[in-house]
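> forwarded from #structure-qc
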């Protein structure tokens, strides 16, 4: 049983996926929302996992990393915000990393430095690969350099959940770091980077791709100190890649498509009247989701035409849902609107249907307001993807176990 520390836990998507494999025990989970007095996500997490592990509801920056060492965690997991990861010299001028305050990635680095887990599994929005716009790829490069300096090999993959059999077209980047002394890394020292991404690596086994080389690829090495990476490095990363000892290979892979779950399969019956739209709301949605060409004036007086393509209205029920945002359920362009199969009337999705889009059990977020239920699901990840990654981590761990079994027995002479 692998012991897990879960950071930025939300309502527990990582935990649900990992525990579904029966091979993980979350010993410590942290969730804290700094901008809200009501800690709805934490309360949901604590309620659903009552009596299982330690539940922490405090600012992660105030957690003493030394207190977590005794938990003997094998893996750290978490989804964290996409922020500005730039670093600077310390006040005295030497090349000591001084990450921006409030950037939660540095909290992951701080804990990993002390805990030294075998594995780290992280999730983020896919624009991380391109940020910031003025120095493409810098932020992700800083992350890779950080893991390099901590002694980890890293693989990443941008995954659209619907392309691997899930109910939502949600694209996210997943980052898997494995400590360099783990057998999984040793067993693949001589495997070519392209083969790692296509067949032999972490993501390749769980999320197969077509057997053809991507049209675009990147093969580079950065030997610089992380400060130099922050100041000068700029590259375009593709949807998959690997970093070993500072050598990076990235390629645009093509998923081996699996039939997704259509919206029709996640809809409830007997839906409450409050989710149906009146004529005024329908008119607003028709405008918001329709094509537009609007003349606007910039702050400098320059006039330009803002264009926006049309969206399906209502949603096609034979396709998976679009990416769910935290504004789901409100009158805005991104909210899902469906024609109810039972009544043929137009309505928004219910909170339970949003839970199903992410693969959570029905009524997982019950007990908070509908607005917060939508918000939490907009922030959540797709549980089914994490379950597949969990199974893969257990396979990786078994290579370590098998290696120990093959070691010759040491005989003691008295």
């Amino acid at each position: 049983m692998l012991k897990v520390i879960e950071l930025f836990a939300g309502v527990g998507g990582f935990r649900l996926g990992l525990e579904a494999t029966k091979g993980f025990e979350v010993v410590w989970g942290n969730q804290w929302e700094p901008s809200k007095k009501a800690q709805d996500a934490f309360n949901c997490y604590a309620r659903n996992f009552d009596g299982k592990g330690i539940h922490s509801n405090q600012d992660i920056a105030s957690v003493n990393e030394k207190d977590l060492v005794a938990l003997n965690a094998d893996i750290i997991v978490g989804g964290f915000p996409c922020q500005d990861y730039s670093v600077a010299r310390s006040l005295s001028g030497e090349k000591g990393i001084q990450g921006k305050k409030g950037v939660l990635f540095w909290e992951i680095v701080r804990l990993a430095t002390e805990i030294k887990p075998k594995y780290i599994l992280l999730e983020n929005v896919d624009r991380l690969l391109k940020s910031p716009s003025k120095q493409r790829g810098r932020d992700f490069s800083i992350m890779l350099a950080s893991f390099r300096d901590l002694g980890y090999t890293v693989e990443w993959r941008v995954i659209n959940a619907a392309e691997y059999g899930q109910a939502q077209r949600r694209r996210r980047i997943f980052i898997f770091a494995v400590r360099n002394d783990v057998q999984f890394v040793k067993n693949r020292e001589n495997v070519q980077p392209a083969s790692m991404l296509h067949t032999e690596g972490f993501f390749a086994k769980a999320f197969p791709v077509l057997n053809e080389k991507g049209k675009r690829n990147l093969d580079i090495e950065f030997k610089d100190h992380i400060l130099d990476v922050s100041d000068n490095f700029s590259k375009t990363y593709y949807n998959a890649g690997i970093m070993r000892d500072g050598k990076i290979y990235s390629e645009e892979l093509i998923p081996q498509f699996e039939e997704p779950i259509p919206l029709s399969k996640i809809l409830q019956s007997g839906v409450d009247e409050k989710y149906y739209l009146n004529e005024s709301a329908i008119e607003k949605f028709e405008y918001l989701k329709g094509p537009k060409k609007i003349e606007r004036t910039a702050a400098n007086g320059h006039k330009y035409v803002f264009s926006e393509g049309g969206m399906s209205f209502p949603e096609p029920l034979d396709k998976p849902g679009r990416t769910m945002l935290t504004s789901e359920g409100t009158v805005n362009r991104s909210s899902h609107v469906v024609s109810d199969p039972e009544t043929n009337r137009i309505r928004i999705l219910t909170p339970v249907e949003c839970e199903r889009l992410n693969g959570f059990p029905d009524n997982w977020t019950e007990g908070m307001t509908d607005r917060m239920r939508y918000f939490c699901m907009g922030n959540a990840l797709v549980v089914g993807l994490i379950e597949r990654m969990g199974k893969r981590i257990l396979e990786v761990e078994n290579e370590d176990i098998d290696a120990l079994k093959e070691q010759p027995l040491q005989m003691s002479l008295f």
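QC bot note: The chain has two domains: 2-258+382-399, 263-362. The mean pLDDT is 91.
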